TrEMBL record:
Keywords: Membrane, Transmembrane, Transmembrane helix. This is Amine oxidase domain-containing protein. The chain crosses the membrane at residues 6-24. PANTHER family: PROTOPORPHYRINOGEN OXIDASE (PTHR42923). InterPro entries: Amino_oxidase, FAD/NAD-bd_sf, Zeta_carotene_desat/Oxidored. It comes from the Bacteria. Residues 18-284 form the Amine oxidase domain. GO terms for molecular function: oxidoreductase activity. It comes from Mesoterricola sediminis.
Length: 437
C-alpha cells in the first residue's frame, strides 16, 4: 500500500473542471488536497485538443465548450482573473440562423430575429411584449416548456424554444426542470426574463488564453498547474470505510486513506463507487438520464460573409438528428489560417437518422440548409457520450435525497447536480465550498 501523503485529508476524484474547481477552493481554504484523474490528462470535457491543419500548421479543436458565457462578475469571471488568463472575444459576428421548415430565418435571440420569427403571428408577438407583466413564481418547479409558455406564450414555446434549448442543453424543453437552471430562477426572482435579464446584465461569449495557448482547455490547464496536486492515470476503483471515520480509496496497485472524499466524476462512475457504501444514493445517481452528443469538426474553404463566424440552430424535429453548427471566426487562433473551421453537433436526446452516421451524410444534410458550405478538407469526429445530464422536474428534491443518503465524509459534485454549463458548475462549487467550510 502506498504511503499516504502527509496531511492529505481530502481526495478529489475526477480532474474535470468541477474537480479542479473544488480542489482549488479547498486548497484556498487551507485544506491539504489531492486530485485523482483517471485519464492521462486533466480537464474532462473542458479540453482543447491539438488538431493540426492538412499541411501540419498548428490548429485546435474544443472537446467541449468552444466559448464561456461570462457576465459581469460571477465566479467564472473571478476565477479567470485570479488565474491570470486573458479572455478573448468569441461572439459570432457573422450570420446566425434558425433552420426551420426547410428555410433559414434570422436567429430569434436578436430583436430582428424575434420580429421575423417563423410560426409567430402578430398576436403571438404582442404576447411577447407582455412578458414583464406576467406574475413571477420564484420557487417554480415547472419544466422549461411550461415556464416559457407562461412567460412568453405557447407559440414561442412551441415554434422557437426547442432549437434554442437543443443548442445548449441537448434535450427538449419539456424534459428540463427550471429548478436546474439557476440563472433563469434568479431572473424569475428579479421580475422575469426582461427585468431579471436587465438586472443581471448582459452575457458575452469569450474563451480563455493561457500565454500562447488558446481555448477552454487553457482554463483547466491553468487550474491544474496552480493546484500542483493533480495525479493523472489514477482511476479510483473502489471506496470503503476505514478506521476512525476515514475513507479508503483504491486504485490499481495501492490505496489511500483520507478524511474526506469528493466525487467529481460523471454520475455513472460516482454511482459505481458509492454502490457498496451508499446504495440508495448510487441507484438515484444511475437513474439520472444523460444524452450523448456526436460532434463533427470540419475544415472547409472560406465562405464569403462568414469571416466573423456563423451559427445555425435547427428546429430539432426537422434536422434528422443535426442540432446545429457553429464556426470559428477567421482570426481565431484555434483555427488554421485560410480555412473555415466548423463544428456540427448531432443527437443529444433526439434520434439520429442512420444516413448521418458518417461524415458524407452529415455534410449532405448541412448543405440542405447551407448550400455555400463546400466539401471538407479535414474532418474529425469527437463523440461525447453521456456528456449532458437531463435534469428534469423534481431535480432539487432528487439532489436533496442523494445528498442526505451520503455518509459523513463523502461529497458529490458535478454536472448531474449543478447542470452542464461551466458558469453553473462554478457557481455550484462556490456555494458548496462556502457551506462546507
Ligand atoms: C461537446 C460539448 C459541448 C459543450 N458545450 C458547452 C458550452 O458551450 N458551454 C458550457 O458551459 N458547457 C458546455 N459543455 C458542458 C461542459 O463541458 C461540462 O458540463 C463540464 O466540462 C463537465 O465537467 P465535470 O468536471 O463535471 O465533468 P467531466 O468533464 O466529465 O470530468 C470528470 C472527470 O472525471 C474523470 N473520471 C471518471 N471516472 C473516474 C474515476 N473512477 N477516478 C478518477 N477520475 C475519473 C474523467 O476522466 C473526467 O476527466 C459541453 C460539453 C460537451 C461534451
Amino acid at each position: 500500500m502506498d504511503k499516504e501523503a502527509p496531511g492529505a485529508s481530502v481526495l478529489v476524484l475526477g480532474g474535470g473542471v468541477t474537480g479542479l474547481l473544488a480542489a482549488l477552493r479547498l486548497k484556498r481554504a487551507g485544506r491539504a488536497v489531492e486530485v485523482w484523474e483517471a485519464s492521462a490528462e486533466s480537464g474532462g470535457w473542458a479540453r482543447t485538443l491539438a488538431w493540426p491543419g492538412p499541411d501540419g500548421t498548428p490548429g485546435y479543436l474544443e472537446r467541449g465548450p468552444q466559448g464561456l458565457l461570462v457576465g459581469r462578475d460571477g465566479p467564472l469571471e473571478r476565477l479567470v482573473r485570479d488565474l491570470g488568463l486573458t479572455l478573448r472575444r468569441q461572439e459570432i459576428k457573422g450570420p446566425r440562423w434558425l433552420g426551420k421548415d426547410g428555410r433559414l430565418h434570422p436567429n430569434p435571440a436578436s430583436l430582428r430575429g424575434l420580429l421575423a420569427a417563423p410560426g409567430l403571428g402578430p398576436l403571438d408577438k404582442l404576447r411577447l411584449l407582455g412578458e414583464p407583466f406576467i406574475p413571477c413564481r420564484p420557487n417554480t418547479t415547472e419544466d422549461l416548456e411550461a415556464y416559457i409558455t407562461r412567460r412568453l406564450g405557447p407559440a414561442f414555446a412551441r415554434e422557437i424554444l426547442p432549437a434554442l434549448v437543443a443548442g445548449v442543453l441537448a434535450a427538449p424543453p419539456d424534459r428540463i426542470g427550471v429548478e436546474a437552471l439557476p440563472r433563469l430562477l434568479r431572473m424569475e426572482a428579479a421580475g422575469g426574463l426582461l427585468r431579471g435579464g436587465l438586472a443581471q446584465g448582459p452575457l458575452r461569449t469569450r474563451y480563455p488564453q493561457d500565454g500562447p495557448y488558446p481555448g477552454t482547455g487553457a482554463l483547466t490547464r491553468a487550474l491544474a498547474r496552480h493546484l500542483g496536486c493533480v495525479r493523472t492515470d489514477r482511476a479510483a476503483e473502489s471506496l470503503e470505510p476505514a478506521e476512525g471515520g476515514r475513507w479508503r480509496v483504491r486504485t490499481r496497485g495501492f490505496a489511500r486513506e483520507v478524511d474526506t472524499v469528493v466525487l467529481a466524476v460523471p454520475a455513472a462512475a460516482a454511482s459505481r463507487l458509492l454502490q457498496p457504501v451508499a446504495p440508495r444514493a448510487a441507484t438515484a445517481l444511475l437513474a439520472i438520464p444523460h444524452a450523448d452528443l456526436r460532434v463533427w469538426h470540419s475544415r472547409h474553404a472560406p465562405v464569403r460573409g462568414w469571416e466573423h463566424g456563423v451559427g445555425l440552430l435547427i428546429h430539432p424535429p426537422q434536422g434528422r438528428g443535426v442540432l446545429g453548427l457553429v464556426s470559428m471566426a477567421r482570426e481565431d487562433p484555434r483555427a488554421v489560417p485560410g480555412l473555415l473551421q466548423v463544428r456540427t453537433y448531432l443527437g443529444g436526446a433526439w434520434p439520429v437518422d442512420p444516413a448521418l452516421d458518417a461524415w458524407p451524410g452529415v455534410h449532405a444534410e448541412l448543405r440542405r440548409w447551407l448550400p455555400d458550405l463546400g466539401p471538407a478538407v479535414q474532418v474529425r469526429e469527437e463523440r461525447a457520450p453521456a456528456a449532458f445530464p437531463i435534469l428534469g422536474r423534481g431535480h432539487a428534491a432528487r439532489t436533496g435525497r442523494i445528498l442526505a443518503d451520503l455518509p459523513r465524509g463523502l461529497h458529490w459534485l458535478g454536472s448531474a447536480r449543478f447542470g452542464p454549463g461551466l458558469p453553473d458548475l462554478a457557481e455550484g462549487v462556490e456555494a458548496w465550498a462556502s457551506s462546507w467550510a
